[in-house]
Write a structure and sequence with these properties.
Length: 242
């Protein structure tokens, strides 16, 4: 099975369309989506429509729940908060219902799909430090988890009782006996210094994973953000991938 794993579209229709186009070329058989389809970008409803037509394998992100009042947005930074309040006003009733029904975690065999952390997805914590990574591995039920949330691609590996290590490549062969937590980056608001849309490709048969980057029409996405009256920083950051 050839999986594509996408996360953090954040209402960026231009990046989402470019990635969906790319999925066809990659001959992907199944798509998983790791949350935050809305928030920040100017097209929350259109992105939700695209997502619903793309896959049923979807989990909720903090911006999804935040936009329908299911998670507290007090901890959000000012531009994230104002974008969530704007998104709340835009969402169509059927899309609110769709977001409300999203689960926090999905599991297929060995693979866990979650937005934030496998251990406590509802707390929306990040995995930035080694102790945080160790904690995440402790609760991992299978050998592989795909996550999003930080918008920064990352591959973590842990072999039995040895310490967690970072695999410094965007491509890896998954070895048996080693467990992995893989952050697939962000389709709609990358923050690793690269402006292209990012997503993950996982070949279950060949046991390979690679990060894919796709160029998209950044300028149009930026113009829409400004026109919608959203914070201008949300447009600016897209050109630099920050
Ligand atoms: Zn996000």
């Amino acid at each position: 099975m050839r999986w594509a794993i996408l996360s953090d579209v954040h209402g960026n229709l231009e990046s989402f369309r470019a990635v969906i186009e790319d999925l066809r070329e990659e001959k992907v058989e199944r798509v998983a989506y790791l949350g935050d389809v809305v928030g920040y970008g100017a097209d929350p409803n259109d992105c939700l429509t695209l997502l619903e037509g793309l896959t049923d394998w979807v989990v909720a992100g903090n911006h999804d729940y935040g936009s329908i009042g299911l998670t507290d947005i007090d901890a959000f930074n000012p531009s994230a908060r104002s974008a969530i309040l704007w998104t709340r006003d835009q969402l169509l009733p059927e899309n609110r219902i769709y977001l409300r029904n999203l689960l926090l975690r999905r599991q297929i065999g060995e693979i866990t799909f979650v937005h934030a952390t496998p251990n406590q997805p509802e707390d929306w914590n990040y995995i930035f430090t080694f102790p945080e990574a160790e904690e995440a591995f402790q609760s991992l039920t299978g050998g592989l988890a795909f996550i999003g949330h930080s918008h920064r691609p990352l591959i973590l590996a842990k072999e039995k009782d040895s310490e967690v290590r970072v695999i410094d490549h965007e491509e890896v062969i998954l070895e048996s006996g080693i467990r992995y937590i893989i952050n697939v980056g962000s389709v709609g608001q990358p923050r690793d210094g690269r402006p292209e849309a990012a997503y993950g490709l996982y070949d279950e048969t060949g046991k390979t994973y690679r990060l894919k980057r796709v160029d998209y029409d950044v300028a149009t996405a930026q113009k829409k953000i400004i026109k919608a009256g959203l914070p201008s920083f949300l447009a600016q950051r897209l050109s630099r991938g920050i």
